[in-house]
């Protein structure tokens, strides 16, 4: 049932419960503040009263979000889970992306900070924050409680080729600086064979404190502000639950933290009259117009610019030894021995993240502009047997699936071009108040494109050394350049779901021509108590999947925000 927000005020209101939101809410609460965490989506993990599950999980406290072998379900049935207002895949449930993602978990190498971030956020500044994250969420390469890894034939065959080419196998998070010519097992934030991460660490400590409050199914429409001072947020209840009305921060000293994700935070800012004038005019012309903050109060900042994502390029190989496991079938028609092993002992293939990720490989390529670029290669076994009853239309949301359907012995390896890229895009907002990619950030200059091609050329040589393998794509007669050119530079074809950058952190105040939306304390320029803490503040992309880095940023931001004096009133 939807209900009106009570009149109580909070020292901090945090908007969004994703990788950024949960950790910062916990740290602010740990410091003794009253904290309200607002999430527009429903509960996800069974731990927090989530209910979405296949029949074989009925009667347990587990949901689809908890069991690693079901993580693929996001690509089959994303209704009520994926955001419906972003135009790209993102999780809109309790936990955001860290409830729906593949739980890949990487300690960032120093260059992720040093190449991308401003002063105060370099690797030396971030070390303590990264350490805190990995103390609370160590991650594992062996999710099954019996310590075994299942169906590793793909990993084994490919790693032989890598060894022959001189690559070194490492335990990735013990050797996080070694990101060139290395490989290892996929590392996940899984514990006791269940999704762990912020939902099982930061959120648990926060929820145990009396002054911490969580409202799910509660969306923030806008930040209510008087000039540069936020007084509260306006709410809309969702899914016939949650709260509506306005909730205020503690008068004078209270603060609002926007952690709604790269698309969600931009939207909250636009609707609060913060952003480029062209987009604020779109909001003004929308259903928001009549109640939007007056134009003379608008703050002109480059929200939505500097959009980034890993550039994804898929290659596919096949090998007679590779074993495909039907993780999609695990939802509706599971193998009883596998569900039994999972439910009784937390062992077996369903403890592994679908569709059996690994090896993960790292290389580096210097672009023609002299900038070193990091590449992460992510292998998965998602070949489909056409004789099984899972029609391809189930997969329409997956960008890379279509060509692999007939191969059950296929391994798809995605090349992620990351840290060091210089192409950037832009997101905007429509008159229906949906955010969307208006300029895709992929391969917008020759240095990024050349790096993708050079990286692929090299990997083609390396993998051709794997005995018994055959190429599916690129075909052996195709040049790498022709192959790369054949894949559109669009989110549908290149997207990696690792969006960053719409509210960039930096010293160059965006109100006066700079590129930054928030200052070095993550405070929005022109505001005295409004902050952004999530993937949107990243100036550039990480080497690997970004969630650990986002949580480290939340740790650092908490430290800086707590050290700031309240504005004088
Ligand atoms: C399918 C998929 C797979 C991925 N795989 C991996 C992986 O394996 N490893 C990895 O490290 N990263 C992965 N990622 C990326 C990672 O999950 C994201 O980068 C990360 O979650 C982003 O964190 P965030 O805090 O910026 O935003 P999010 O985690 O997206 O959180 C934002 C939250 O804010 C809520 N929200 C939005 N607007 C409002 C509003 N107005 N009011 C209230 N609440 C609001 C949303 O519902 C959401 O819960 C994946 C992402 C996806 C989508």
UniProtKB/TrEMBL annotation:
Sequence ranges assigned to domain Glucose-methanol-choline oxidoreductase N-terminal in this UniProt record: 78-311
For FAD, which residues are the binding ones? 93, 220
Tell me, what is one Gene Ontology molecular-function annotation carried by this entry? Answer: oxidoreductase activity, acting on CH-OH group of donors
Required co-factor(s) are: FAD
- Give the residue spans that cross the bilayer: none
Would you identify the family this protein belongs to, as annotated? Belongs to the GMC oxidoreductase family.
Q: What is this protein called?
A: Cellobiose dehydrogenase
């Amino acid at each position: 049932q939807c209900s009106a927000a009570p009149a109580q005020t909070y020292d901090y209101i945090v908007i969004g419960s994703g990788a950024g939101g949960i950790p910062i809410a916990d740290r602010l609460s740990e410091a003794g503040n009253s904290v309200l965490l607002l999430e527009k989506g429903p509960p996800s993990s069974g731990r927090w009263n989530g209910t979405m599950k296949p029949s074989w999980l009925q009667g347990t406290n587990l949901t689809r979000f908890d069991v690693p072998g079901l993580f693929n379900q996001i690509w089959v049935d994303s209704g009520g889970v994926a955001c419906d207002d972003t135009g790209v895949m993102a999780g809109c449930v309790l936990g955001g992306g860290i409830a729906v993602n593949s739980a890949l978990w990487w300690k960032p190498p120093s260059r992720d900070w040093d190449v991308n971030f401003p002063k105060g956020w370099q690797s030396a500044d971030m070390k303590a924050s990264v350490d805190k994250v990995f103390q609370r969420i160590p991650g594992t390469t062996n999710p099954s409680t019996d310590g075994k890894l299942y169906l590793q034939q793909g990993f084994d065959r490919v790693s032989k080729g890598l060894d022959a080419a001189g690559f070194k196998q490492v335990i990735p998070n013990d050797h996080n600086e070694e990101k060139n010519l290395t490989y290892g097992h996929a590392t996940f934030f899984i514990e006791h064979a269940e999704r762990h991460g912020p939902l099982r660490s930061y959120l648990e400590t926060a929820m145990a404190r009396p002054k911490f409050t969580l409202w799910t199914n509660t969306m923030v429409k806008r930040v209510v502000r008087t000039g540069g001072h936020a007084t509260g947020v306006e709410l809309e209840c969702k899914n016939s639950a949650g709260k509506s009305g306005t909730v205020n921060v503690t008068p004078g000293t209270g603060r609002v933290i926007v952690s709604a994700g790269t698309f969600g935070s931009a939207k909250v800012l636009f609707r609060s009259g913060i952003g480029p004038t062209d987009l604020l005019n779109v909001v003004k012309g929308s259903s928001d117009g009549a109640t939007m903050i007056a134009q003379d109060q608008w703050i002109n900042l480059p929200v939505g610019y500097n959009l980034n994502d890993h550039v994804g390029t898929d290659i596919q190989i096949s090998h007679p030894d590779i074993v495909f496991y039907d993780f999609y079938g695990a939802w509706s028609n599971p193998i009883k021995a596998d569900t039994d092993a999972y439910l009784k002992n937390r062992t077996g293939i369903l403890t592994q993240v679908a569709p059996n990720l690994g090896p993960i490989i790292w290389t580096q390529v210097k672009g023609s502009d002299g900038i070193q670029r990091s590449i992460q290669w992510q292998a998965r076994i998602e070949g489909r047997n056409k004789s099984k009853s899972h029609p391809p239309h189930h997969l329409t949301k997956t960008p890379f699936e279509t060509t692999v359907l007939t191969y059950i012995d296929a391994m798809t390896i995605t090349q992620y071009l990351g840290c060091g890229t210089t192409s950037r895009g832009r997101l905007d907002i429509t008159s229906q108040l949906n955010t969307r990619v208006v300029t895709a950030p992929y391969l917008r200059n020759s240095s990024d494109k050349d790096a993708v091609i050079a990286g692929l050329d090299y990997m083609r040589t390396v993998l051709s050394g794997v005995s018994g393998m055959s190429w599916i794509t690129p075909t052996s007669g195709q040049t790498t350049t022709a192959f790369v050119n054949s894949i559109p530079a669009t989110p549908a074809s290149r997207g990696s779901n690792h969006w960053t950058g719409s509210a960039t952190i930096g010293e160059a105040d965006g109100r006066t021509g700079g590129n930054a939306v928030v200052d070095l304390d993550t405070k929005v320029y022109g505001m005295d108590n409004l902050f952004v803490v999530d993937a949107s503040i990243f100036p550039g992309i990480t080497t690997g999947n970004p969630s650990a880095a986002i949580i480290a940023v939340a740790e650092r931001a908490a430290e800086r925000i707590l050290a700031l004096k309240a504005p004088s009133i």
